[in-house]
Amino acid sequence: MESLDALVSLAKRRGFIYQGSEIYGGLAGTWDYGPLGVALKKNIENLWWKRFVSDREDMYGMDAAILMHPKVWESSGHVSGFSDPLVECEKCKRRFRADHIEDTEKCPECGGRLGEARQFNMMFKTSVGAMEDSASTVYLRPETAGGMFVNFKNVIDSFHPKLPFGLAQIGKAFRNEITPRDFIFRVRELEQMEIEYFVRPESWKEHFDFFLKEQHDFLADVGLSKEKLHIVDVPEADRAHYSKHSVDTEFDFPFGQKELLGLAYRTDFDLKSHSEGSGTELSYFDEETKERFVPHVIEPTFGLGRLMLAVLSDAYCEDELGGEKRVYLAFKPAVAPVKVAVFPLLKNKPELVAKAREVYGALKKEFGAVVFDDNGNIGKRYRRQDEIGTPWCVTIDFDTLGEGGDAVLNTVTVRDRDTGEQKRVAINELAAMFKVALSA
Ligand code: GAP
Asked: For 95-107, how does the pLDDT look when each residue is reduced to its tens digit (9 = 90+)?
């Protein structure tokens, strides 16, 4: 797709994503997920959790608190180092990220003079309890990773895992971005899907390479086009302070090739820093070799909203079908928010409606994400489902009831979203057919 505008408009119109606090004029960098956005998000999360956690024997799920002890972020280096260069226009007072504008002396909005760049810490501060003094200051976590490092010892004590093993978490993180932009690409309240994978120091590269491949296999699970993905080695100057080696995967977004997700070799930086900061030893005792050491960490990290934007923009298609222009979202069936729509051909024929309700009920029981629609003519119903990316529409007509003879009794038409082609399928074969297509 060429520009974001059409996607932003479809996302709002069809209930995927709305501007945060819209009726009050919006709050920059915040977005609210509507019913279809939530469904899409959950499908992506579930595929991630399946591949990276439940299908494996060496992963432990976590859901840590967003508010953490302020010393966590001192030890992790975020209090001193999690900042971006900020410049402010002396005339209009607008603020910009110095590394995101071409001319760091002239305001891109009003042409006024820009002041000196200064480092701006991106963590949101708040205070716990009734007192608003520095002793009560806490930060909203800027990455989910922190919640996993501080629970390293807890999980070892509860489960006695053997190295290598990982902690995995899906959750919110908060960053006071200077210039949130590009729809849900750069936001202030984001969601991450992260793994901290603990390994013997000498084996880090083998695990790093493994997770890079896993990340790309997962991108295929959610249906992203391979040719829009680019693997980029992050140069030392651009790496996060905790990383000794980082590889980003970039994606061709409508506004250019940009970071989609990351993979970092965090060494023993975090466990050592939190050991020193907390006074609790965070090490691992290998029962077989009788050695005690601090494991090293490989971190595959995904921004969930950013991945949704990639999935949505990759799926967005415009074409002409039956002489009419249409927009459709060519989601992989596994991520589509609605899998099947069931229609009676006519809404004023009770026998068609009853049969359609019966088929709908059976499919809904099997797949959950199934809708019933009897509103408007069939063409309009198809367009509505195309726009939200429903892979299949099932229509119950008079042939289903036997008016066309025994050969078509108890069959329905199944229409394919991408091609518009229709075929007749026996009702008792529908579920098996959709199951096969959903697992592809
Ligand atoms: N724990 C490692 C970490 O947080 P990061 O590269 O800062 O690394 C990981 O963030 C991922 O989170 C990014 O690749 C991106 O997908 C997503 N992300 C980061 N900042 C974001 C923002 N402001 N808005 C949306 N997604 C963001």
From this structure: 999 988 989 899 9
